[in-house]
Request: fold
Amino acid sequence: MFKTEFFNSLLTPAAVILAVLLVWPAAAQAQAILSLEVVEPRTFGYAIGDTLRREVHLSLRAEYHLENASLPKSGRLNRWLELAPPEIRTESIEDGRRYRLVFTYQILNAPRQLETVTLPQLNLGFTDDTQPLTTLVPALQVTVTPLTPDAGPDSSGLSPLQPDRAPAPIPVEERKRRFSWLVSGLLSLLAYGAARRWLMPVFAAGKLPFATAVRELKRSQRGKNTPGQYAAGLRIVHQAVNETAGRVVFAANLDEFLEAHPRFGHLRAEFARVFAASRKVFFSDADGVVPPDSSLPALLFLCRQCSRIERSTLRLGP
Amino acid sequence: MDAPGQIAQNHRRLYAGAVFLLETPVSTRGIVRPDSDLGAWRSAALKLESEINSTVLGQEEVARLLVIAVFGRGHVLLEGDVGVGKTTMLRCLARLIGGGYERVEGTIDLMPSDLIYHTFVDEQGKPRVAPGPLLKHGAALSTFFFNEVNRARPQMHSLLLRVMAERSVTAFDREYRFPHLQVYADRNRVEKEETFEIPAAARDRFLMELEIRAPADPELQRRLMVETRFHDVDALLERLPHGLVAYEQLNDVAASVQSHVQATATLQTYALDLCRATSVPGAFGVRISDVDIERFVQAGVSPRGMSLLLRAARIAAWLRGRNAVAPEDIHQVFLAAIAHRVFLKPVYELRRSELVGEFLSQVLSRVAAP
Reply:
């Protein structure tokens, strides 16, 4: 690159070709064009990335004007060149108008060997609104040099083609740690869920209200058969029902309880019987009288059924 | 009992030249009804309730509680909006149980003497003293309605306290007794200016505080508006039988009911627990959202409140045809008999109306029976 610029600076004045081209064929053309001057760049010593600047100074008579549509389109021209949008400057002169057109090309390819590249010819159109006319700037050939030698000296490690440098490794330790935290967190959540689903019921089942009631009723059954025994059994059942409901359940709001806990719904008659018996035992004027149709085993049977239901509810999860 | 001449003489001494026009107090007939009569009394009580319900629509619960108060011989604090039928209900009740009915309006300048006598100059130009609303009916006074009691001054409250507590008042150097008296007082809750809140001691003497709301049922509202028989209260009351139950026997009947209806040991424990839960709600697991329950209650139910609660529950059980109190009898009267006895810490007192109901229903749902 440096070399190219050096040549540029050194040779540009010399390389400027002042080509005053007299365009002879048509008389009208001769009439229209006052002067045409093309400033070409040097024709050698270019490498990839270099820019070439072609300047066209065109002076037209006053009644003529340049047709912008005739200017070459900017963009990639071929595999070697790209044309920047042309710069157009206009100034009035004595008996007409002068156009300064600047075309900047850039070399976009690097050859293996010295290569000749052609800057295409330019057809510049102009008109006086009655008749279209053109003038031609001929193509220009320049040479493009390779950047690397075919085979560099091996001693300094310059093998003909260097392999691509390996990318720097991304630091992943932090990510690994975070990932392991995430995985262990997920695993413990899974473990918690599994424990809640399968393990806890095993432990909690023994603490459920009706399970406790079953245990206590069995214990009281073992004792002596006293008049207070049935009343104590009723108290145990009441406590289990109250605990299950989360409030005190009376005969009056038994339906409410069964509605909130529909799993016990099919035991409605049994519950009603227990509540009626409890009413007789606790709140009738003959205090503590055991109704003949009630017995402790019946209470135990009801509590066993309820205990089974509440355990199945527990397995189903909250 | 003093002879009328003696009274007049006393008063002549006090008010020279004044003629006193006090009626002779009617003596009670003193018929103690045996237990066997309680069945008949119960039908009478239920008839009383149905008559009230036919006069005042949509107040079945209040009517039942009023009947409980009548047979529990307790005073009642009424609360309700204007025009919901408080006065009609009381006039109806007074007519059905017979005896004297008086109504006074609480005003800021009402003084105790205004209830006892009033003085005037008669046609002959002589100063006269006539008995005031409290003494006019003598011992026959059975229903005394004190409207807007919190508009009256504390002097009036203390008189009321005495009348309610002892069913007697001292005037003209002697004591007048009203053995059959029931006091009904209405509290104005709308205005706060120039009102005097009834002291805790007076509030505690009321058996119940009844909240009377306009019926929400549109059909009842339509009937109240359209049916002409509800337009003229006097005519409406006129068709009621006079003295459906004999007021002078109510005390004896009430006593019989109290001894007839049993409360089992379990029920006593339950009632006691309920009352204790109003004092130490935290110990019974009572919770109210955004209330610090440990700092909620200033004073729970007093011993008098406990006894009145059970008294009312016994009547409720009796009206339901039972001879033992069950928890639902307590539930029926609990809110009415207890709500006005629970005194809250000042910080919660302002939100009393919204909190007390929730508090008591929490108490009912937390205290186990048995």
User: Anything to note?
Assistant: Residues 38-55 of chain B form the longest helix (18 residues). The CA atoms of residues 166 and 369 of chain B lie 35 Å apart. Chain B has 15 helices and eleven strands.
